[in-house]
Amino acid sequence: MNQYEILKKYFGYDNFRDAQETLIESILSGRDTVGIMPTGAGKSLCFQIPALMMEGITLVISPLISLMKDQVGSLNQAGIHAAYLNSSLTMNQYYKALEFARQGRYPIIYVAPERLVTEEFLDFAIHTRIAMVAVDEAHCVSQWGQDFRPSYLKIVEFIELLPQRPVVSAFTATATKEVRDDILDILQLRDPLVMTTGFDRSNLYFGVMSPKDRYASVKNYLERHPGESGIIYCLTRKVVEEVCEKLRQEGFGVTRYHAGLSDQERRQNQDDFIYDRLPVMVATNAFGMGIDKSNVRFVLHYGMPKNMESYYQEAGRAGRDGEAAECILFYAGQDVITNQFFIDNNQDNQELDALTRALVQERDRERLRKMTFYCFTNECLRDYILRYFGEYGSNYCGNCQNCLTQFEDVDVTEIARGIVGCVKACRQRYGVNVILDTVHGANTAKIRQYRMNENPHYGELAKVPTYRLRQVMNYLQLRQLLTVTNDEYAIVKLTADSRQVLEGAERIVMRMAKEQERAAREKEEKKKKSAVSGVELTEAEQKLFERLRVLRTEIAREEKVPPYIVFSDKTLISMSKIRPCDKAGMLKVSGVGEFKYEKYGERFLACVGEEISP
Ligand code: ADP
Ligand code: ZN
Questions:
Q1: pLDDT at residue 529, as a whole number
Q2: Is any ligand 1 atom within 6 A of the Cβ of residue 295?
Q3: What does pTM read for this prediction?
Q4: Which domains are seen in the chain, by residue range?
């Protein structure tokens, strides 16, 4: 079979995506090959398909047990024999798997890097023909990367011990120039073909909001997206627990994940999410590495992460199946302080000398600033992200909040002067809320207690809506015309430039979403409701999709695999639109291969049939 036949027969797809074809051909020609492609681009096929065509076994090196399990599960479902060797196996299972491997039962074997140079494994590898070593998540070899794994350095050691050098291929989604160079050097690749595809994920919608009440906004979002799978990232464990508990009490199907939970609870919760038993995961950034769940329809950030790298990685867990998905960041000024605290107290840097530590902190602060700008920019958000990673965008993507909003320039000089004046008059002693309440003329116990009702600016901006006051406050911080102390009190302070505002030397102009636009959008948001975001399904198609989804869950339960491994959302959507009535029709649906058809094609056909003629 050639690569095109394999693609159709086992994976059920008609065409390769751009880079896939080139990468596969390069590997098949025996050349070392590196693929740098964003999440969801389809890296796995690039080594899985050649693995089925080459003489000998392909070893796939992967850092995470969950990843291996997922990929091997997918391959087995597609009718391809594959196995994994890692510490999750008992001694017995391990030897059995090795025995089968020796008999040549598996064209593809996933191995944890630390296994490679163990005695038993080496003995096996030296006496078998290894056609290729494919290094997944290859950025783990680099100390520049975010997830350096020392065990990845064993890969080269292992390859050198083999009687015949196999083809070496490496794949990753994150590669700045340093990381890329490290991959080539450390893995000692020979004249490799290196292919980088763009980082853009055009199916992802990006948005930023700074609502008064974050919790209410998130809740509202979930109400508008019932049954959809999503992740809510929070900055701290405490917030994870609070948000998860509140949502649970309000009846949402949520679970939680953070490093403070027991191994057992983490495993359980992760499975509940992956198997679609609970659609929404509330988690810290400890969650997600190696989660391949393809039908995540939204990633909400309940708080701003510490840098764009983290943000894009986390947000990128949405929409791996290529269907529309949403990434929305809910920002509040407090997030900057929380992150600054993380930077100042970073335990990972304890071993560095003082000078290096200061440099690292400086770099982290700069990254945080760029992240904060993302929350305030009025430009195309996708453009901002791509430029951050060194690519050129198009200035207009048409699928982010800013591209879909009309802006106007608003002169906020008077508002700014009132706020800064108030800070000065109270001798820089209070936090953001007290200042804003004062200029807005709130009559609360706290204001009276601090005697802010006697402040000369009290009530001066009573006519300006609070959300606008907050916007201006954020903007003043961003421009460093005011600053907020980096401690739990978060006191608003003047800066060297604050004087400019008081003297009124320069007009202060902010670009803001048009008023009517804002109201209209909010209304639209409230109305918008669809089970599969982005895709237009007619009512009948939607009904069929729901039925197919139920059948998929049933089969997943029987097979003990996550539902998305049976068929992706994309495949089910395509099935609801095409409504195949026979085998040939079913095989036309993208994602239905022959093996899967044999296994459960008829049950899906029957389901389509029932829906058409009930
Ligand atoms: P990555 O490892 O790059 O994040 P995956 O290998 O998990 O991406 O692939 C992402 C999704 O795209 C999977 O659901 C996969 O089946 C699908 N896919 C891969 N290649 C193709 C293709 N040529 N046509 C259609 N879908 C594809
Ligand atoms: Zn845009």
A1: 41
A2: no
A3: 0.70
A4: 3-196 (3.40.50.300), 204-388 (3.40.50.300), 407-514 (1.10.10.10), 539-612 (1.10.150.80)
